Amino acid sequence: MKPSKLQDHLRRCHPDKTEKDLKYFQTLKDKFQKRPTLDRMFASTSQRNDDGLRASYNISLLIAKSRKPHTIGDKLILPAVEEVLKTVLHKPVSDIIKRIPLSNNTIDRRIDEMSSDIESFLCNYMYLQTTHFSIQLDESTLSDNAALLLAYMYVRFIMNQEIDEELFFARTLITDTKGESIFHVLKDYFIEKAIPLSNIISVATDGAPAMVGRYRGFIRYLKQNVSGVLAIHCVIQRQHLVAKHLSVRLHESLHLVIDAVNRIRSNTLNTRLFAHLCEENDTFINYSFTLKYAGCRKAYV
User: In this prediction, what percent of the chain has a pLDDT beyond 70?
Assistant: First the structure.
């Protein structure tokens, strides 16, 4: 609009503002631009809800990494957050807590969604379909006698200038735990995800016959399909096997220590007496964290 028409409009429609200076109109403009609108109100609420959802996922990931029960979110973490907000930050608690769902079922669902997202990222974005990688396999039996096959997939691709390593999948072995059954479970999964077996360059297992058997072991069946694959024995288990052939004196000394630790930790009375003995002799031993000896734990390199 022309300046002359603007001035005429001001005199006819807003005579009370004809004597106002430029700063007054600039203030009106700023107030008009900053006025609350429906879009801004919904955008602000949506942003707060998104922040609460992101916090819920991050806390669920921390709970999964710490291997704590999923009920810890609702019973401990939320009350702790509420206490911090109320006591330290002096902020309203109810609105913030409501935006962070951490119930038992919610955390379980969040963990499943994140694991599915990792699997989808690895399989559907052409990483495993076009990249050579190593796998680590271990067969284990759960408390309900169900046989579980764990495949730790170390995918060699660069992400943020680092080599990434991910837990790939866990599958139940329906019948037996023979090498052929383990191989077919792995093969069926690779076919389902359109990943060629030829991308496997090395595989690490323990020394069980089902894994490394010469005729019916998993490695045997894998080499029939991938001729150049490199089989690696568990490093820690190899150390355990070597430890069986130590010198007699060192072997007896280690067994004496093992028997003593197991005797102390197997009985609560012995544990308390040992703690009291350490305190009386001013021995700086962290007896509360003395672990019971286990023959060999599974780990792969």
Answer: 79
DSSP 283: -
Dihedral of CA 243/248/250/251: which sign?
A: positive
Task: Measure the N-to-C terminal CA separation of the chain; round to a whole number of Å.
Answer: 76
Confidence of residue 296 (pLDDT cuts 50, 70, 90): very low
* Coil, helix or strand at residue 169: strand
Cα dist from 266 to 38, 252, 258, 277, whole Å: 66, 21, 12, 17
Q: How far is CA 174 from CA 186, 188, 216, 286, in A?
A: 13, 13, 18, 44
| Full domain range(s) for residue 163 | 126-233
C-alpha to C-alpha distance for 198 and 211, rounded to whole angstroms: 19
105-156 residue pLDDT tens: 999 999 989 888 888 877 776 677 887 888 888 877 776 666 666 655 555 5
Q: How far is CA 77 from the centre of its chain?
A: 18
DSSP-assigned letter for residue 162: E
How many CB atoms neighbour CB 137 within 10 A? Answer: 23
- pLDDT band at 297; cut points 50, 70, 90: very low
The answer to the question of residue 1 being in a domain is no
Q: Is there a single domain that holds both residue 141 and residue 226?
A: yes
Q: By the 8 A CB rule, do 216 and 182 touch?
A: no
For tokens 């509360």, what's the residue?
288
Q: How many of the other CB atoms lie within 10 Å of CB of 121?
A: 12
Residue 119 belongs to some domain of the structure:
no
